[in-house]
Design a protein that fits this description.
single chain, mainly alpha, 12 helices, about 70% helix, globular
Length: about 350
C-alpha cells in the first residue's frame, strides 16, 4: 500500500465512523451510481428547448399587447426585459413598431408544449431512477402525462404565490429589511414548491415525509440561484454588445439551467440516502459496506421490465448459477425474489 492509498484509506475510515462526514460522501456516491450528471444534462436540454419557444411567445405577445399603447411600451422599456442583450436592443429600437404574428404564436405554443412535456417526462424518469423503482412498477404514458399536467398546475400556483408574497413583503417593509424579508420568503416558498413538485414527480410508493429534507436544502439554494441570475442580467449583461451579449446570454442560461438541474437531482439523492439510511459508503473498495451492497442491489433490481422477470443479487466469493446452468442441472423455476 503506497502513501496515497494509505492516506485515502485513513480518510475513508474517518468518514465511515462520523456521520457528518459520511452523509455527503454517501449522497455524492449515490449521485454517481445513478448517473446524476446525465440526468441533469437531460433536464437542462429540455429546459432550454422549452425556453426558446417561450421567448418567441413573449415577443409575439408583446407585439399584440404593446401595439398602439405608448404607456405599456414605456413600462416594458423600464423593466428588466430591456436589460437582455439582443432582446433589449430590439425593444428599444422597434418598440413602437412591434406587431403580433399568428404563425409565430402557433409555432411558439407547439414548441413550448413539446419542451415543457419533455422536461416533465424527464423529471419523472429522473425521480424513478434515483429511487431505483423497477421498470415493471413505473407508470405508463397516460399516467405520466397526467402528472405532467399536474406539475404545470403546481408550478403556476407556486409562481403566483411567490409573486404575491414578494409584493406583500415589499409593501410592508422598505430598504434592506424588505430585501432580507423577500429572500427569506422566497426561500420558504421555493422549499414548499419543491416539495409539491417532488410529490407530483416521485412514484406513490415513496411517502411524502421522505421528500422534505432535500427540499429544505434546495429551497434556499434555488433562491440564491435566482438572485445570482437577476444580478447577472441587470449588472453584467446590460452594457454588453449584441454579439458578446448574445453568447453570454446563451452560455449563462445553459449554466443556470444546469445548476438548477444539479440542485434538483442532489436534493432527490439526499432524500433517498436519508430515507434508506444509505451510509456509510466506502470510498475505496474492497470491502463493500452494507450501504454499498444495498445501493448496488437496488440498481440491479430496477432493471426488471416484466412481471415474470426477477433479478436476484448475490455478494460474495461464490458465483450464482446462471439460468442456463440451472436448466442443464434440471432445476425448476425459482420460487421468487431474493431478499429485499
Amino acid at each position: 500500500m503506497n502513501q496515497v492509498e494509505r492516506a485515502l484509506r485513513a480518510v475513508d475510515r474517518f468518514q465511515q465512523r462520523h456521520s457528518p462526514a459520511g452523509l455527503p460522501v454517501a449522497v455524492a456516491k449515490k449521485y454517481g451510481d445513478d448517473r446524476g450528471g446525465l440526468l441533469a444534462a437531460l433536464i437542462t436540454y429540455y429546459g432550454f428547448v422549452a425556453l426558446i419557444p417561450l421567448l418567441l411567445l413573449l415577443s409575439t405577445a408583446l407585439g399584440f399587447v404593446l401595439h398602439g399603447r405608448p404607456r405599456a411600451q414605456r413600462a416594458v422599456l423600464d423593466s428588466a426585459l430591456a436589460d437582455f442583450p439582443i432582446i433589449g436592443d430590439q425593444l428599444r429600437q422597434n418598440v413602437h413598431s412591434l406587431q403580433g404574428s399568428g404563425v409565430a404564436l402557433v409555432i411558439g405554443v407547439l414548441g413550448l408544449l413539446y419542451g415543457a412535456l419533455g422536461i416533465a417526462q424527464v423529471l419523472q424518469h429522473a425521480m424513478a431512477e434515483i429511487w431505483n423503482i423497477p421498470g415493471v412498477k413505473r407508470p405508463g404514458y397516460w399516467p405520466r402525462l397526467a402528472r405532467s399536467l399536474l406539475l404545470f398546475t403546481v408550478l403556476a400556483a407556486g409562481l403566483l404565490l411567490a409573486t404575491a408574497a414578494a409584493a406583500l413583503v415589499g409593501t410592508a417593509l422598505a430598504g434592506p429589511p424588505a430585501r432580507t424579508g423577500a429572500l427569506l420568503v422566497s426561500a420558504i416558498v421555493n422549499a414548499a414548491l419543491c416539495l409539491a413538485c417532488f410529490r407530483v414527480l416521485t412514484p406513490k410508493a415513496v411517502p411524502t415525509r421522505a421528500l422534505w429534507p432535500g427540499c429544505a436544502v434546495a429551497g434556499p439554494l434555488f433562491t440564491v440561484l435566482q438572485a445570482f441570475g437577476s444580478i447577472l442580467v441587470t449588472h453584467e449583461l446590460r452594457h454588453a454588445g449584441q454579439v458578446y451579449g448574445f453568447f453570454a446570454t446563451v452560455i449563462g442560461l445553459l449554466a443556470w439551467l444546469y445548476l438548477a438541474a444539479q440542485i434538483t437531482v442532489y436534493a432527490a439523492e439526499t432524500n433517498v440516502v436519508l430515507a434508506r439510511q444509505l451510509w456509510p459508503r466506502s470510498i475505496l473498495q474492497p470491502p463493500l459496506t452494507g450501504a454499498d451492497e444495498e445501493v448496488l442491489a437496488a440498481i440491479a433490481r430496477q432493471e426488471e421490465r416484466r412481471p415474470e422477470q426477477h433479478v436476484d443479487v448475490v455478494f460474495g466469493e461464490e458465483e450464482a448459477p446462471s439460468r442456463s446452468g440451472a436448466a442443464e442441472e434440471g432445476e425448476g423455476p425459482r420460487p421468487g425474489r431474493g431478499p429485499e
